[in-house]
Specification:
single chain; elongated; 5 helices; mainly alpha; 434 Repressor (Amino-terminal Domain)
Length: 100
Amino acid sequence: MALKMHPSLAIHVGEWLKAEIVEPAGVSVTALAEHFSVSRQALSTLLNGNASLSADMAIRFEKAFGVKADTLLRMQTTYELAQAREHEGEIKVERFARAA
């Protein structure tokens, strides 16, 4: 039996990055976006929890701050699965039966 995590424990990785990495570093979103060679809007949307973390962006954070990209991507996946689990009852799919 798999352990089931309560959805409230899953935090959007962008919000976590903002609170735990970007703000403590004292860097502005504009300056960090320039450092990453991405648009300010793309970075801001991620950090405000309104966009998913891409593998490319995860690598940028890894290179700049040392936090592992695969850890960040697992956080993103955990968050997305928790969001989907909140409405899994609405997903109507029957068990697939193989033909004999």
